[in-house]
Amino acid sequence: MCSYFTKSTALLTKMAATAFIFLTLLFIFHFKKAHGTDQVSSVTERSNLQTYIVSVQQPEGSDLAESEYVENWHRSFLPYSLESSDVQQRPFYSYKNVISGFAAKLTEEEVQDMKKKNGFVSARPERKVRLQTTHSPSFLGLHQGMGVWKESNFGKGVIIGILDGGINPDHPSFSDEGMPPPPAKWKGRCDFSTCNNKLIGARTFNIEGNVKGTEPPIDVDGHGTHVAGTAAGAFVKNAESLGNAKGTAAGMAPYAHLAIYKVCFGGDVDCTESDLLAGLDAAIEDGVDVLSISIGGGSVPFFNDSIAVGSFAAIQKGIFVSCAAGNSGPFNSTISNEAPWILTVGASTLDRSIVATAKLGNREEFDGESVFQPKDFPQTPLPLVYAGMNGKPESAFCGNGSLSGIDVKGKVVLCERGGGIARIFKGEQVKNAGGAAMILMNDEPNAFSVIADPHVLPATHVSNDAGLKIKSYINSTATPMATIIFKGTVIGNSLAPTVVSFSSRGPNLASPGILKPDIIGPGLSILAAWFEPLDFNTNPKSIFNIMSGTSMACPHLSGIAALLKSSHPYWSPAAIKSALMTTADLLNMNGERIVDETLRPADIFAIGAGHVNPSRANDPGLVYDIQPDDYIPYLCGLGYSDKEVGILVHRPVVCSRIGKIPEAQLNYPSFSVTLGPAQTFTRTVTNVGQVYSSYAVNVVAPQGVVVSVKPSKLYFSKVNQKATYSVTFTRSGSGYTSGQFAQGYITWVSAKYSVRSPISVRLQ
């Protein structure tokens, strides 16, 4: 009887909701017909249109996420005009999962009229955001037939959704050899004719072109193909890029399924929030398990950040979300994707280099890198010239046409990095001016971080230190000479991993009480699938390329998360994130602290919890779990209004009833504390390791801070048992500067496990 009553009530509720929407639409139509078009222009000047992200309430008592009438409700907020086809034909997205609302092309006047309607919550102009391997699996300890790859069955059965710039579906990295069909829960579709059990979904979302999942997501710049191959590319033997980095290519989760959502167009700048939300909305509906988003923008409040809003909807459905930290390093407070429900990934190096050595006339040698390594480049020295010899900054940067007044024909040209000019483009300018080769020197911020690029002429990219010495040599002689010696692929750099200069840094501006980035992973000179051959003339089958960026680091972590999801299908997104963070490495291959681009120890705002260690993450011992509703008191504690929190969590919220917590009270696997008086926070850990186990705490206190942990020991007698401890932070005497940051660690140690949480303290 109770069951029958529930179903009947639900049916009546849906009927009432349907009637409400119908009557609302009917009322709007007749009211505006009767009152003419004085209030709403019949013909909108398209030049005044821009895309708005609009949040609206759901009709009371309805579940729009399951209602076929959701789009009608959203369209009821659009302006009416005599030329209604003008409005109806405008690009429009109706979202079901990521927000209660829609995206539409509107004028500011139309938005103002919309604000008067019942059910309106907010509207804002959309932002544009940016797109931000043969060896990386073995560097990370992933080997066929053993370890985490074997334990996770190579990610079999897990679906990774890639939001990026499309894919080359015919690449061998996306072969489905040995792969089963997708799981029964998969509800997506593929707009390629060549989809298979590896590439199971492929759609395009482009509001500017009024394309909503109806055209195949063809990759036209390589970024999306590279990212997809890094996350879940199949095993491909004899992979290489222009003859370098030879070996068997594979993604992090070679047997995981891929679903592609093309939301970026025209290089690295044109990714609109409306398209991004549409891709997220579809991915959640389709049934992905992991989302990989190598896209980001500047810091904004989470309720105005479409990636944060859409990702929250994803974690509510149990979907893990990995995002790039951004490429605005090495400067502090440049981090993207700051929300605590997102894994924010910085970039590190591999132990592999593709060496190109600059050899000067005085016999000094400076190692750099380049993917293009011609075998016929003369080893005899050539004249060497500094591009900035005329004193013009644009010439030093080898900008467009800047070398026209300098004699560079047949010479090796020293160019400086920076000036807003792409590294490969600098080489094009040297080549166009008749230069024989290029030495590209880093600027001071990039220091020792050099990148292997597929240059268009013989070249090497050297450190700032090397560049200054080369400059000094040029100034010391009337006849400076140089050549480049190409040494190919070299493996075994004992300083690896190091933090790459471009990797964005904390602290977190949107939420200072959450430490970001969370973790770092390989993002420099990564070989993966490419959208077309790099060299049509000599090797048309060379369809791999080497790229760098946190865009490359992110899919490494996405693929590793898929491995953990396959091994532990019932772990929450927060549990997977905790496992990755608390097991990360702080030491390099030398057993010394990981360094940054200056070759000094990297701080906590560069490495977060450390460098990913997949094998340890698959068996972490303890995890810090967070359920989606646990974030609500945290969001209220950020000072967000009820309406703003509601936008994020997709339902009405009253913070005064729910309560607030400080940011550092969230059950996060790290601590970020602004310390005036003493402060105490609690954490709860869940045992996912040995049944009978005990852990003792080990504290490395930040300088100037006393850290007290109670209890000092934790005991477990079963799996999934929870234990809570408190941490009190107290200043210790004087000798510190207000605003200064200090860092430390809390580690729970058992006979088998070491579960570490980083600490950042800002002293006041």
Write a concise synopsis of the structure shown.
With 764 residues, the protein is α/β, with parallel strands linked by helices.
Describe this structure in words.
It is built from 19 helices and 35 strands. It is α/β, with parallel strands linked by helices and 764 residues long. The strands form 8 sheets. Strands 8-7-11-6-13-15-16-24 form an 8-stranded mixed beta sheet, sandwiched between helices. The chain has a 7-stranded mixed beta sheet with strand order 18-17-23-19-20-21-22, with helices on both faces. A hairpin with a 4-residue loop joins strand 7 (199-206) and strand 8 (211-212). Helix 7 packs parallel to helix 13 and helix 8 (273-286) packs parallel to helix 9 (306-316). The longest helix is centred in the first third of the chain and has 33 residues, at 2-34. The termini are far apart. The relative contact order is 0.10. Residues 1-44 have low confidence and may be disordered.
